[in-house]
Design a protein that fits this description.
The protein is mainly α and about 525 residues long. The chain contains 24 helices and 7 strands.
Amino acid sequence: MDEDLEKLLTHPYDEPVLAKDTRLLEAESSTDFTSRTVKDYSAFRNSPDVTLRPHISGANLIESRFFSPTLPGTMKNALIQYAPRLKDCIDDLKKNYNIYVETATDDILEKEARRLDRRYFQQKANEDQIAFIRLKRFYEKIKTFHEIARDDWREINKLNDTLSVMPETQIFARQIEAEVLRGVSLLMRQTDSFLDALKQYMRIEQETLDAITGSYRTVMNYTISIIYTISAFFGEAPEIIDMPPETPAEDSFSSSDRDGPAGSIARNIIIESQERRLNRSAILSALLLGSRDWNRTPHYSMELPVRFYAESVENFKNAYHVNMDPKNILGPMNTAAALVRQGQGENFLERYKTMIRNLFSEIMQELITIDFPGLDRPNVFLYHGGPAVILNILLFRLRQSQLGEIFYLDKLNVTVREIPEELIKKELIEWWNRLFSDLQAEDVDSYLTYSRTMELVKKEFRALHEEGVKLRKKEQPASTYVGLEKWLKDNRIRVFGFRKIEVFKRFIPGTILDQN
């Protein structure tokens, strides 16, 4: 047999993962950031409270380690004299994160821009001018927090340098350096690059520090040829061409432009709880706990526009039938009968939500007790899997059984038969956030733990793949290697199981399971 074919049959998806993992581990422990890495500020496509969250998760990790009751007595005695200095820096970081970053999200900036439009324009601002105010305030807030955070982290680094030369705290200091300070240093440099590029894009002429509020203020002119959005800055909006010559707006902004006297808007905004702010925001989203590039990918994210959820709920309430009983699955009715029963869905809404949440819990238990038993940290495994894995498994179950389908009439009185995915996503996001409410960033930031999870998953995939090869040989004794891939794809549920398929697709890209 050809050697390459024999190797493929023996280890069909044996890519050199360990070498790749090792390189990433080494990169995380290196302070030699490349120019390309420093200038990669693509994370700012996300909301700033997500992108800059490592400041808070890193500070929390240092604080928990510094004041841990399990520290040896000698180390505690050595650290205690530096506790007030560290606490001041961490408290300052958290306070200013709340004041500037939490108020730089889209929903708050939108309201602020509409409240301030007459300050910047003589007439009521149009949507492009509102976007100008919004982006201006975004830059000023992120710039302010960034400079404050720079000072706080500089003090924390000095403190860690002191601890690194003391025999009692040397190991402690090295751990803080490796687990937090290097990552924050990279984030700070990426933020520098982002702000510099955004400043040029917006054509900011001058920026000054307001002595009263401690905030940065910018001088810039509104230019109609610039699209004042982050997406346009990243090139995600079409360029405007053939525009008239640029003309500055009638209003310019000087360093005296400010939100008010000592009590600025930022100071007067009530910092709401995360849950309350989530419920009134334009987007519902799953918790994003990690602070590394590799654990802040779309796999960890799930977002749902509130308007989509509202539409889904409205359709559900208007439904004339909801399949809630697996022993009594019904199909669509004729229009006359449907019109009589229209609106019955509202009676089933809360029961439906309870059923969906129970199914989430069932899937979770099946994954960690049946599919991947014996996990050291099952909650960390589930978090790394991501919410989409749970959603896809649930949708497969519902579609196979027709359980959870709803039937309603559209505007033309034509029956629509569907599974209300947006409603389900909302329940999943809330269930997911409750499930991982106690999970800390340090629990999911260990690439060693993550790489062990990947190896466990890959080992299971290879074992099942080999079982699939044997099963095909048993059922088709005369078969050759030709056609094996198609057979495995056609029989993937039998061979791999529908729950494991979603886990394999998450952790092992490029296999037959990714193919349509």
